[in-house]
Amino acid sequence: MDFTSPAQLVGYVAFVLGVAAFAQRIDWRLKLLVATECAVYTLHFYLLGNNAASLSAGLSTLRMFASLKTRSPWVAAFFLVSNIGLGAALATSAMSWFSIAAGVCGTVAVFFLTGIGMRAVLFLATLCWLANNILSGSIGGTLLESIIAVVNGATMLRLWRGRRSRPKAKTRGKRF
């Protein structure tokens, strides 16, 4: 395996962007950095010859940018149908379905969830990408998803601890 091929070098760039993304506590920053990472991933998987993963990463780029502007269920449905339909058309093996599942999880996460819930479903997407990357021979991608799993888990823990340490609002005797 050539650790310095153009495909692997592009994967290393995605690695740096992905780690920076999942260290973010603010949702919009996470989405912006993930969108950029996905754009780089698109090229990476194209160079590796994994067209289903390249398509899924490309759709993820557009999806993340769209989710910064809207949470419309219609836009989410467009990305879900596109990911499944186009992914199925390009799928050449069972391995291809890992990237498609990752795209579906990512769509649900960024359009319908926030905070810890969004990160938990993105964690599932990370596991799907990890399986895809191992099977694709993506060195940077495998490192990326492994580190993202750890960083995202630590960020979820920090958010959960932060939420637990804040005092609950008092209702001053009012009933709702």
Automatic annotation (TrEMBL):
Does the entry feature the keyword Ribosomal protein, yes or no? no
Keyword terms, alphabetized: Membrane, Transmembrane, Transmembrane helix
Bilayer-spanning residue ranges: 6-23, 30-49, 74-98, 110-132, 138-160
Pfam families for the chain? Imp-YgjV
Q: Work out whether the entry's keyword set contains Transmembrane.
A: yes
> What protein am I looking at?
YgjV family protein
Q: Which organism is it from?
A: Solidesulfovibrio carbinoliphilus subsp. oakridgensis
